[in-house]
Structure prediction request, 262 residues.
Amino acid sequence: MWLIAITFLSVGFGDIVPNTYCGRGIAVSTGIMGAGCTALLVAVVSRKLELTRAEKHVHNFMMDTQLTKRLKNAAANVLRETWLIYKHTRLVKRVNPGRVRTHQRKFLLAIYALRKVKMDQRKLMDNANTITDMAKTQNTVYEIVSDMSTRQDSVEDRLTTMEEKLIALQEQLDLLPELITTRIQTQVQLSQECASELLCSFFSTSEKIVETNKIPIKVQLSETEEIKRISTSELQRLILLEKLEVLELKKRILLKKLEKYN
Prediction:
C-alpha cells in the first residue's frame, strides 16, 4: 500500500523500491515534499501572472473597444452585402447568378460575424461583473449602511427632543389650571374694584339726582346692586370663555404634535 503514495506523487513508478522501513519512510517524505514544492511553485507563478484590479479593468476596456470596432465593421459588411445583392438583382438588366450567390455567401458570413461579435460582447460583460467589482459593491453597501445608521441616530435624537418637549408641554398644561384660577381671581378682584368705583361714582351722582329730583334712595340702591351683580357675573363669564378658548387651542396644538410623534 505504501507504493500508492509514490505512484500518485509522481516520484517513481514502483520499478525500483526500497526494502527497509527507513528507506520507505524517506521515499514517502520525499514524495510529500516534492508535491508541496510543486504546489508552492504553481501558486507563486499563478499569483505573479494574475492581473491586478486596475489591469483587469484596462483589459476589459480595451477588449470592449475592440469588440465595438468589430461590431461596426460587421454591421457595415452586412449593409454592404445587402446593397450589392439588391444592386445585382434589381438594378441590372441581366442578372448574374454566380455573382449574386457570391454576395449572398458573403452576406451570410457577415451576419455570422455580427452574431459572434455580439456573443463575445455578452461574454465580456459577464466576465466584467466578477470579483473585480465586488470591492466596489462592498464599499457602496458600506456607505449606504453608514448613511442609514446616521439617519437612524438623527431620528432617535429628534424623537428624544420631541419627547422632552412633550414632557415640558405636559408640565405647562399641569400648571395651567393654577394659573387660570389665579388669573380669574385677579380679574374678579379688578372687576370688584371697578364695580366699587362705579358704585361710588353712581352714588355721588344719585345723591345729586335725589337732591334735585327727590327720588327715593332705596330704589337707587337696589338698582346699583343689580348692576354690580350683572357686571361681575358678565365679566366672570367672559373671562372663563376666553380661558376655555385658550385651553382648546393648546389642546389642538398638543394633539397635532402627538400625531406627528406617532
Q: What stands out?
A: Confidence is low (pLDDT under 50) at residues 214-221. The helical segments are 2-8, 21-49, 53-90, 97-128, 134-213, 217-261. The chain is about 90% helix and 0% strand. The CA atoms of residues 59 and 216 lie 121 Å apart.
